[in-house]
Design brief:
The complex is a heterodimer of chains A (about 450) and B (about 120).
Chain A (H helix, E strand, L loop, with lengths): L2 H13 L10 H6 L5 H4 L15 H6 L15 H7 L7 H9 L11 H33 L8 H24 L3 H8 L8 H13 L1 H11 L2 H4 L9 E6 L2 E3 L4 E2 L9 E5 L6 E14 L4 E15 L5 E3 L10 E4 L13 E9 L8 H8 L3 H5 L3 H8 L2 E10 L5 H7 L26 H4 L9 H4 L4
Parallel strand pairs in A: 3-10
Antiparallel strand pairs in A: 1-2, 1-4, 4-7, 5-6, 5-9, 6-8, 9-10
Chain B lengths: L4 H4 L12 H44 L11 H7 L34
Helix pairs in contact in B: 2-3
The chains are: A alpha+beta (about 450), B mainly alpha (about 120).
Chain lengths: ~450, ~120
């Protein structure tokens, strides 16, 4: 026996199982997961005296005979033969690949992995028991009369809400350590009706995108210009003409001529109705020498839940549910005015309440003046909405603005804004310097140096 | 330009782990299980220590409320038990009496009357 055969044989024997040979199945594997040491005693003599390997795969891997005529359920002979070629890694690895069939990920025979899974399964069982106990407690609390609580009905509802929050937390904790949950979430196949995936999604959002949005709110003074206080809790992304847009980007007016599509993810369970509003907060107003707001889009009663992600604003009221109160007005900025901040706000309506779209239309969808009467704060206060999502972009005068304004019948493309000239109140200063002094007739001889120089 | 973390941090950082996806998932599973295991150990230890401390406290309280032996008044046994004679070694000084090390000498350099 050559040296490499001597080295390879015990490895192969430890991987190969005595009677299963090369065709493992998942069930046999679940009987013997990861360790071969205790079974080895029953395998008969540990060191085989015969130099002939008994398994054709083993023989082929050891280089003794070419692999021929191997019947297999899991692999075709060609695949089988490919496992014996050295380009698939070490001999040990090839043997493992050839003999381990299609074992599911969770049953892969790695000792430490399986021990870890045992610990995690134990923890999960504990959490589930806690969930069951808490559910019983909730039922008990619900059945009790409010007069039995110290603070009455209010106290009872508070207690119930706390218990339900605890159950949600336990549901997250029960599944958070599952590698398959992690894998599914990373693949984007997470079921958003389940608390653990919502939790993971929220954590991912908070890792970067939420920070960026918060920074935009801060640096573009959305707080306190538009709202006195605002903390976004919903992931909102914009795309124009199916191009995703970075928050705060300056966009071409040809891009923004059509309404955007939004990608929105809510992280709390249940359905609710949303209102979407787009507001330009930098409309120059020459009369008051200041800036005003203008409503560019307003739609209400859009049903939303965690499983929904995508909505094109032009589909609202047509293909998607919801009512458009103010149709899309392409954002524009006249020549000379500084960049306009276009903020997209998503506001959550009170549970079970729909907004009266006729009233919204009457308020905000008229001439340019009624659009200017729009404000997010006013909308929030008047209709009891809660701002939850935010995103923004900017617009400046560019080559396409005039054409866009003409196409949509917006007047004012020929207006250019200029800063009013501020004249100084100081007295004009006398000319100073060597030349100025020598302009007088006294210095006639030096005029050739002091007049018409340069 | 020094932009790499290894160049900017005073301590040498180990290289990031490079693993295939399945292997990384297994690694992650094991890591989570290890964290969970340590948390359980820690919590078990803390609760055990807390129980021990509470039972010691209740024993001391019981001692404080007992009278005797003989004609001794209430709490005598407690006071005796709380004495720290010999705890710090033969003729040792309890740590409570040790002077904190300071920059300046004390007003009274040596207390000649002091007895342990």
């Amino acid at each position: 026996m050559s040296r490499c055969q001597q080295v390879g044989q015990p490895i192969l024997r430890s991987i190969r199982q005595q009677s299963y040979g090369y065709s493992y199945s998942a069930t046999t594997c679940s009987i013997r997961y990861f360790t071969s040491t205790p079974r080895r005693r029953h395998d008969g003599p540990t060191l085989q005296t015969g130099s002939e390997p008994q398994n054709p795969i083993e023989a082929a891997l050891l280089g003794a005979t070419p692999l021929t005529g191997v019947p297999s359920k899991a692999w075709t002979p060609e695949q089988m033969a490919s496992f014996t070629s050295p380009e698939h890694g070490s001999r040990r690895r090839r043997a493992a690949m050839a003999t381990s069939g299609n074992i599911p990920f969770e049953q892969l025979p790695y000792q430490c992995f399986q021990e870890a899974r045992k610990i995690l399964a134990e923890d999960r069982a504990e959490k589930i028991a806690k969930i069951a106990a808490t559910m019983i407690k909730i039922k008990h609390t619900e059945s009790k009369d409010a007069s039995q609580f110290r603070g009455g009905e209010h106290y009872k509802q508070k207690r119930l809400a706390a218990l339900r929050a605890y159950v949600d937390e336990l549901k997250v904790l029960a599944d958070i350590n599952d590698p398959m949950v992690k894998r599914r979430f990373e693949d984007g196949k997470g079921d958003m009706t389940k608390p653990v995936y919502r939790y993971l999604a929220e954590k991912k959002w908070h890792a970067m995108e939420h920070k960026i949005i918060t920074q935009r709110i801060h640096q573009f003074h959305i707080v306190p210009d538009i709202l006195p206080k605002f903390e976004p809790t919903v992931d909102l992304k914009l795309s124009f003409r199916s191009y995703p847009v970075q928050p705060g980007a300056i966009l071409d007016s040809a891009m923004t001529e059509v309404p955007p599509a939004i990608r929105m993810q809510v992280f709390d369970k249940g359905g609710r109705l949303m209102t979407i509003a787009v507001i330009d907060s930098d409309v120059p107003d020459a009369e008051s020498d200041g800036f005003k707001w203008r409503c560019h889009f307003l739609a209400a009663n859009i049903p939303w839940d965690p499983t929904k992600t995508h909505l094109a604003l032009r589909h609202i009221g047509v293909r998607a549910e919801g009512d458009v109160a103010v149709p899309w007005l392409p954002p524009y900025s006249q020549l000379g005015s500084p960049y306009h901040r276009l903020s997209v706000f998503v506001l959550q309506q009170k549970p079970g309440e729909t907004l009266d779209v006729a009233q919204l239309k009457e308020l905000y969808d008229g001439d340019a003046e009624s659009r200017k009467a729009f404000g997010i704060k006013g909308l929030r206060d008047r209709f009891g909405l809660e701002p939850v999502g935010f995103n923004m972009f900017r617009t400046v005068w560019d080559d396409n603005t005039a054409a866009v304004m003409e196409r949509h019948g917006i007047p004012g493309a020929d207006i250019e804004f200029r800063r009013a000239r501020v004249t100084t109140m100081k007295q004009p200063r006398k000319a100073k310097g060597w030349e100025a002094k020598r302009q007088k007739p006294k210095y006639r001889s030096l005029w050739k140096y002091s007049k018409r120089i340069a | 330009m020094l932009s790499h973390m290894a160049a900017l941090t005073p301590r040498r950082l180990p290289a990031p782990l490079r693993m295939g996806r399945n292997r990384h998932l297994r690694h992650w599973t094991i890591h989570r299980a290890w964290l969970l295991f340590r948390r359980r150990q820690r919590e078990a230890r803390e609760s055990r220590l807390m129980l021990q401390h509470q039972s010691m406290e209740s024993a001391c309280e019981a001692l404080r409320l007992t009278e005797g032996p003989g004609t001794r008044d209430q709490g005598y046994l407690y006071r005796v038990a709380m004495e720290k004679k010999g705890v710090y070694g033969h003729h040792g000084i309890p740590i409570e009496y040790a002077r904190a090390q300071v920059d300046t000498p004390p007003r009274v350099p040596w207390n000649h009357d002091w007895k342990a």
